[in-house]
Predict the structure of V8-like Glu-specific endopeptidase.
Amino acid sequence: MKRTTVMVAVLAVVGAAAIATPLLLGPMAEADQPEQTPNQISREAETGVLEIGTIEEVGTTLSYLTSSKQVLTYPEAEYVKVHFSRLELMPGDYVTVSDPEGTESHRYESNEVEWATSISGDTAVVELHSTSGVVSDVLSRYGISVDKVARGFSTGELAQRAKERQRTESVCGQDDQLDAVCYQSDEPKIYKNSAPVARLLIGGTTLCTAFRIGEENRMLTNNHCFENNSQARSTEVWFNYSCEECGSGTVGTVTKVRGEKVLDTDRTYDYTLFTVDDFKAVKKFGHLNLATRQARAGEELYIPQHPGGAPTQIALNSDADGGACRVEDPTFDGYAYDSDVSYYCDTAFGSSGSPVLSRETHEVIALHHFGGCPNSGVRSDIVAERIAQHM
């Protein structure tokens, strides 16, 4: 059974380019880094934050007196995210940013909005809607200015950038990941536990993974993905970014919300606990629970994730570890001694912040953050103790 074709070219190129130079993940400054441990020094690169887009200058204006509609197209871009440098509306009026068919549309009434929610695909339609229909000279001082957009790289651009980076993607042996939906019939519990896992679009251009933890409005990702409220609010959280059929590459309806507030974050243990602005919209996707115990050597694992920006994948099997993903070392060195759990489950750039779950108990036993084969995640018992006051 083959993986989805989405981003496959990217992952294949990166995987072929593995090198043995240790790389540290951002955004920590060198002076802030904890001392490297022996395991860190001997292994290869962190999967890290993946850059999946770029900023394009626009410089266009919509007004009540002239043009009230603007179409912004970037051929083969994965998404288009509009930035307003000016958004001055008459009372009751609003702006929409949508795809050409109107199947995805976001409405804005506040003059304080800067970045609109991204539109999936290569075209965004920005339109000014007036409820009064009155046109007069007084309206000349009102209008909308779009000064730039963040647009997603095409598959070809991502492949080229991956080739130029020459970094490992932390696939151990062959890539054994499959679309989450491939497990819907044979492993329904595993498939269900992929639903709380979300793709992060950070600042319009970079990617990580996150997941709902506990029944309340709580999300968990890595500190190196983002660490403060400003970064949280510039982060989109995409749920249900998953293929509808095994290997199809066709994604269903995606639910997009925004990060809201960072409740706790730590660089050494590389976690960020945060909330989203529209919890009601994502509550239906369920949640995961952190284990408060240590993992056991040989314990079988699985990792739902968004490697390389692909729709939800699950690493369940590993040809590098005798068939099943399993715990290699339950007390592996990460940014601190004995802070991590190591494994040979396949991961990639963009998998940072994914949950590592026990196949036996379906609890999260680690928060993935390092690549290098073995790959590793921060122990959940450590994270659970540190964030307990916020749960």
Notes: The chain has seven helices and 25 strands.
